[in-house]
Amino acid sequence: MPGTGHLPPGQRKLIASIAANTRFAGMTADDRRAATAPAREARKKSWERKADPEGRMTPDELADAVVRLKKAHYARMQLASAQARTGRKAA
């Protein structure tokens, strides 16, 4: 949507959500998977680069390392969320 750069992040997020839901409303599950495949592949490659920037791991080692990185990432998010909730309670 043109001209959304000046909007607050929350409003931009809502506009993006509306656009995505409108786009995918008329698609089958297979069509949605096909449409989002490039993004999923790019994210997979991003995790792999973080896990093994020098490209020295075997495919099995790389897969295990990616799983561990994701677990650490989501645990950090969970911790930050818990800390934010604790901070709100104290305020």
Give a written overview of the molecule.
The chain is flat, with a radius of gyration of 19 Å. By secondary structure, it is mainly α. The protein has one domain. It has three helices and no strands. The termini are far apart. The chain has helices at residues 9-25, 29-51, 59-90. The model has no long low-confidence stretch (mean pLDDT 93). Residues 27-59 are annotated as: Disordered. Residues 29-59 have a biased composition (Basic and acidic residues).
Distinctive features:
3 helices; flat; single chain; mainly alpha; about 90 residues
What ranges have pLDDT less than 50 throughout 5 or more consecutive residues?
none
Provide the succession of SSEs: HHH
Query: How large a portion of the residues is in β-strands, by DSSP E?
Result: under 5%
List the domain count as a whole number.
1
Structural class: mainly alpha
Overall shape: it is: flat
Mean pLDDT: 93
Relative helix content: over 70%
Radius of gyration: 19 Å
Total strands: 0
Tell me the distance between the termini: 38 Å
Largest sheet: none
User: What's the number of helices?
Assistant: 3
